Amino acid sequence: MIQAKRLRLILGDQLNEHHSWFQKTQDNVTYVLMEVRQETDYVKHHIQKVASFFAAMRAFSDRLIERGHRVIYLRMDDPSNDQNFETNLKKLIRKEKFTHFEYLLPDEVRLDEELKEITGNLVIPHSVQDTEHFLTRRQDVNDFFADKKQFVMETFYRFMRKKHRILMDGKKPAGGKWSYDASNRRRYDNTVPIPDPIVFGNDVSKITEMIHNAKVKTYGEIQPEALIWPVNRSQAVTALNDFLINRLPYFGTYQDAMTRKSWSVFHSRLSFALNTKILHPMEVIQAAVDAWKKNSHVIGIQQTEGFVRQILGWREYMRGMYWALMPDFAKMNFFNHTQPLPRFYWDGRTKMTCMKAVIGQSLRYAYAHHIQRLMVTGNFALLAGVQPDEVDAWYLGIYVDAIQWVEITNTRGMSQYADGGIIATKPYVASANYIHSMSDYCEDCHYDHRARYGQRACPFNSLYWDFLNRHRHKLKKNPRVAMMYRTWDRKDGGEKKKILKQAETYKEKIDDL
Ligand SMILES: Cc1cc2nc3c(=O)[nH]c(=O)nc-3n(C[C@H](O)[C@H](O)[C@H](O)COP(=O)(O)OP(=O)(O)OC[C@H]3O[C@@H](n4cnc5c(N)ncnc54)[C@H](O)[C@@H]3O)c2cc1C
Ligand code: SF4
Predict the structure, then answer these.
(1) Is-cis flag, bond preceding 327, omega within 30?
(2) What integer pLDDT is reported at residue 134 of this predicted model?
(3) Which residue's alpha carbon is at the smallest distance from atom 2 of ligand 2?
(4) Interatomic CA distance for residues 131 and 119, integer angstroms
(5) Spatial contact of 373 and 400, defined as CB atoms under 8 Å apart
């Protein structure tokens, strides 16, 4: 019998070398990876994001070849590259006479639809397989919440803990509590030194040159001869081990802390390796749990649980919510916000120290940690009434880990409340009070974090009250916001007027703040 000649497509975020596809080499199977303009151009990306993806794809291709697989790698500057999946695939199938096409389920609706369309037009049969990456299938989160009133992450997370027997002591949670969130909110107080983030020195100068020559529109900074992100399995495992030893012991305690002393504090910075599938979420979770078991005198349960919750809980939940809510989700705009994104999001030039620090490090490293994304840049965009499409495009472009399934759920859902409360139970808005309590930013700022109006009043303060006042009719029934309205209502009329006037002044010259 003549064997089918198979072509298998690997997307840039499907770099899982433990996938069953790669467990044996077969002469009749060829893998293809492509650097295409359709992927560099659907949004304007940070240069480190594009370079990291291409470097990781090239390393993955080399790894497959080393293991004896047949691989076609189409570089962006290859003259035969038509810069989109459809034409490239059709050309390859014709030229190499493939008789069967296979692909792995993409994690984005955009590519899911495109691949369905492409395969519908192919003259050869095709098949689709799972990426074997997530701990749930696309529809599992939706099914889990089918008989429940609200999509509460906590209930799903407890279910996942029990199902996968993670941090369980029989039927009870290890340590007696499901969540240690309450003890994980400490400001950075200098009691423990923050180790320097682990960085790699990947030479991507040729890739960067190719991107520039092709005139791909990018922004942000890069050191082309020393890209900091892990782009292969061995680097990603090194980063994981470094996290377990140097950062996990304080991860939970300082999870929400922001400081000018460090751009990643005790965070793992594993999101790029996880989202490109170089690391499997269960191997990261198990490694953290094992580290805790072996060194429980150094790593407390609250640190480990805090970390496990992010991956076993939030990450899987967001992925499931994406498939439950898309594509309508991408159009939601609960507050009907229409403002453009302020200019300083693109260059970090603002007098607000917190925004300058977070945007500045995002441009420098293509990274900010969760609370910086949520409570500084996300918070400001929501208070300023920015159109959610613009907010999404910024988050999707700037971070090295940004892929739509996890970017849009966090941005449009959790941060901008544009879904009206499906993902988050309240809008994540805060005045300078919060930023001051969780960071050292306000200590050296042009603005006064205590002032609500007046020349040097912190913009977060008046914009916060203005936001609540503007959207009262939409939020008044939310019990989680009730306290904020009680505080507002207690203010006298004159005070309210001054605050709202200050907000108007700031909104009029928002680009100059
Ligand atoms: C507005 C906004 C946009 C975001 N965009 C992205 C994005 O594009 N890509 C992305 O991976 N994460 C995104 N996040 C979630 C989170 O901020 C990042 O996963 C995290 O900062 C990555 O850094 P880390 O690896 O050091 O995380 P750590 O703090 O060390 O956490 C460990 C891991 O947990 C997972 N995780 C943590 N929080 C979340 C979350 N809320 N949702 C899903 N997974 C989570 C990540 O895989 C992360 O690597 C966003 C959050 C906000 C508020
Ligand atoms: S005073 Fe206001 S603008 Fe300045 S750092 Fe603090 S919160 Fe940010």
Answers:
(1) yes
(2) 97
(3) 458
(4) 18
(5) no
Q: Per-block average pLDDT, block size 10, for the chain (513 residues)?
A: 88 97 96 97 97 98 97 97 96 95 97 96 95 96 90 95 96 94 87 95 98 97 98 98 97 96 97 98 98 95 96 97 96 98 98 98 98 98 98 98 98 97 95 97 97 96 97 93 94 96 97 97
Q: What pLDDT, on the 0 to 100 scale, is given for residue 4?
A: 87
Distance CA 161, CA 304 (A): 13
- Ligand 1: distance of its center to the CA of 265 in Å? 14
Residue to substitute in 260, 435, 440, 450 for testing ligand 2 pocket (most ligand atoms within 8 angstroms of CB): 435
- What phi and psi, each to the nearest 5 degrees, are found at residue 71? -135, 135
Question: Which residue is associated with the tokens 């996990």?
Answer: 248
Closest CA to 30 of 73, 85, 88, 71: 71
- Residue 126, helix vs strand vs coil: strand
One-letter identity of residue 369: H
Distance 314 CA to ligand 1 centre (A): 9
Q: How far is the CA of 420 from the centre of ligand 2 (A)?
A: 27
Kindly give, in sequence order, each residue whose CB lies less than 8 Å from that of residue 115, ignoring residues fewer than 6 positions away.
9, 85, 103, 106, 128
Residue 407 Cβ < 6 Å to ligand 1:
yes
| Amino acid 1: pLDDT | 61
184 lines ligand 1 (CB under 6 A): no
Of the bound ligands, which one is closest to the alpha carbon of residue 260? 2
Distance 2 CA to ligand 2 centre (A): 69
Please give the number of the atom of ligand 2 that sits closest to the Cα of 449.
Answer: 1
* HSE-CB of 181 using CA atoms within 13 angstroms: 6
Count the residues in the chain.
513
Query: Which residue has a Cα nearest atom 53 of ligand 1?
Result: 374
370 CA to middle of ligand 1, Å? 6
Q: Which helix (H) or strand (E) holds 32?
A: strand 29-34
- Report strand pairing: 70-74 vs 168-169: unpaired
Of 41, 45, 75, 36, the closest CA to residue 58 belongs to: 75
CB 11 within 8 A of CB 104: yes
Structure tokens at 128: 């689709």
Kind and range of the H or E run holding 169: strand 168-169
Question: Taking a C-beta distance cutoff of 8 angstroms, is the pair 392, 406 a contact?
Answer: no
Helix axes 85-96, 109-121, angle to 10 degrees: 40
- Å from CA of 409 to ligand 1 middle: 11
The closest alpha carbon to 386, from 409, 344, 352, 416, belongs to 416
Cβ(415) – ligand 1 distance below 6 Å: yes
